[in-house]
Amino acid sequence: MDTILIVDDNQAVCSALSLMLELNGFKTLTCFSPEEALGLVAEQEIALVIQDMNFTQDTTSGEEGKRLFYDIRACQPQLPIILLTAWTQLELAVELVKEGAADYMGKPWDDDKLLNSVNNLISLHALSRQNSQLARSEHQRMSAIKDADLCGIVFGSGAMQRCIDLALQIAKSDVSVLITGPNGAGKDKLADILHANSPLKHKPFIKVNIGALPMELLEAELFGAEAGAFTGANKARIGRFEAADGGTLFLDEIGNLPLSGQVKLLRVLQTGEFERLGSHQTRKVKVRVISATNADLAEDIASGRFREDLFYRLNVIELALPPLNQRQDDILPLVNHFIGQDFSLSKPTQQALVSYPWPGNVRELENACKRAVILAASPMLTMADFGLKPVNGLKPVSGLNPVSGAPSTSSVSAPSPVASQQAQEQRQKPRFAEQEVETDRAPTVDSASRGEPTGADIELALAEHNGVIARVAKSLGLSRQALYRRMEKFGIEK
């Protein structure tokens, strides 16, 4: 409940205002002198002040109220103040309103008008305080990021910002962190940030991709092995845990760890103790473990593929990294980073890049940018360089992934029955049938995978290449003669 301070030397005025405000859900405090008012403002949480302008009998100048107003302003600059007076002086009213007085009313007042002013001012004051708090928080956050080592990560989305903020917050502790998210989304970058901003940043940082290690050598890689422990082990070797002693160990694709390895890992996390393969000597290390997975570990636990007790040891804090299609504001900053300063993007290309779902996430985007830079005919990269079609009905060219050429797993809009039939017929043709039959097509890299351009495609390409027929034809995989015939067919003028 908001508290309103009423300052007036007339007790009847104080009582009338208190009654009206309390009937409308406010708490009130009353006092009869400027000195009392300043004491209450300093001690109490006041939402608004209603003050008289004259406190001494036979005084009508308003100077007392003016002094009180400035004194309150000095200690509470944002506190809304409504001035009440039976002796209206326009010049003084204008002066104080310019100095920040919220409202100026004469006595007797209109209850509805005063209540409306009180409600509006308290709401505005609450919003102002909230904005100030947010601004302070944002300033603190930006200061923390400015001083942090972000390991070269590029982002522009609020979702990624929240992930980084949380990573910086938990980096200072030594608890285990589980990073979840799809392949290629940047989980390893978050692990880099966690270590680089931790007290262990000058200690070893060892990365292990569990999925890339042979199952038969996994335990030896993690915990080490003595000479003769297995075929080919001619000498003793330390494992990754010993190598990371005193620092950080990043276990990527932790969901691929077999159950036998999970038991040993659980023991290390609990006690720091383990034995090398082929040894009975117990060794002890102190390691912070960061793990990452694209698997649904809850489902793996239910099916018996992952230990529940290990999950809770690894997942003290979870960093959930969204896929790239859920943080579209990251796409263009990443593209500009990958293509460098020698290349730029046309507006239609930017729209196509943002609209494409990128099932392979940042890794797929990076490969698409490498492809575009290699195939680019000019410093202005086009949709054709990336293997993308216009935004309306956007999908990879001929239904193929723009980077790998594999069938696309998603599209923005479902194809029409005619398009589906055409696509099926196209798939039944030999891979290079289009070049063999369509002799008027220019033999470009994409010509085998590009479908028949529509009128909209041609118009967009003309706009993108400023009407230069040679460039338009090349971008569409056509000869100039074939392009002219299609322009005539669709009624497109150059």
Automatic annotation (TrEMBL):
Biased composition (Low complexity): 402-424
Gene3D superfamilies from the UniProt entry: 1.10.8.60, 3.40.50.2300, Homeodomain-like (1.10.10.60), P-loop containing nucleotide triphosphate hydrolases (3.40.50.300)
Region Disordered: start-end pairs: 402-452
Pfam annotation, one family: Response_reg
GO BP term (any one): regulation of DNA-templated transcription
Start and end residues of each Response regulatory domain: 3-122
Modified residues (4-aspartylphosphate): 52
Amino acid composition bias (Basic and acidic residues), ranges on this chain: 426-443
Molecular function via GO: ATP binding; sequence-specific DNA binding
Coiled-coil parts of chain: none
Domain Sigma-54 factor interaction: residue ranges: 153-374
Entry-linked InterPro entries: AAA+_ATPase, AAA_lid_NorR, CheY-like_superfamily, Homeodomain-like_sf, HTH_Fis, P-loop_NTPase, Sig_transdc_resp-reg_receiver, Sigma_54_int
Keywords assigned by UniProt, alphabetized: ATP-binding, DNA-binding, Nucleotide-binding, Phosphoprotein, Transcription, Transcription regulation
Name of this protein: Two component, sigma54 specific, transcriptional regulator, Fis family
Annotated transmembrane regions: none
Organism: Shewanella loihica (strain ATCC BAA-1088 / PV-4)
